Amino acid sequence: EDAQWLVENLNGNIPQGLDTPVIVRFAQAKGGGKGAGASEGRPGPYSNGAEAQAWGGKGGGKGGKGKMQSFIGGLIAQNGLPGGKYSNDENCLFVGGLPADCTTQDLYSLFTPFGAIPANGVKAMTAADGRCSGIGFVNFL
């Protein structure tokens, strides 16, 4: 319901500070079911497919995950957070026309007031240079 409102009211609008319209649509056609290629065990909807590691022991070493990231990843892998794992279903939104400096946190801050979003349920896609490629995805519960 919240996702439908966002699609109807944000799609095609030019937000203050941007020059081009933002595209907000369902990532899959309504009733399309689960996304093809969605695999079990991934810690996030758009990760590289690496399994989340359970939290334990000391963490945060150079180049490694910190304790909090490991803890959250473990909870997600064990389906231990309310709302369960994300699901690329009929509540997944595609968001286009994003500026190059948009981050995943920016998308989360923008869309979380409109409804519950599971852990790792938001992703601003990045280009090879690390900047936003102009698109993102938001999974609502």
Structural notes for this entry:
Helix content is 20%, strand content 16%. With 141 residues, it is an alpha+beta fold. It has a 4-stranded antiparallel beta sheet, covered by helices on one side. The longest helix is centred in the middle third of the chain and has 11 residues, at 67-77. The chain is globular and about 40 Å long. 25% of the residues are buried.
Number of strands: 4
Question: What order do the SSEs take from the amino end to the carboxyl end, as H and E?
Answer: HEHEHEE
Q: Total helix count?
A: 3
- What general form does the structure show? globular
Read across the widest sheet, the strand sequence of neighbours is 1-2-4-3
- In quaternary terms, these chains amount to single chain
- How helix-rich are the residues, as a percent range? 10-25%
Report the average pLDDT across residues: 73
Structural class: alpha+beta
Give the low-confidence spans.
34-44, 46-63
Cα-based radius of gyration, to the nearest Å: 16 Å
Profile the largest sheet.
4 strands, antiparallel
Strand content: 15-25%
Span between termini = 10 Å
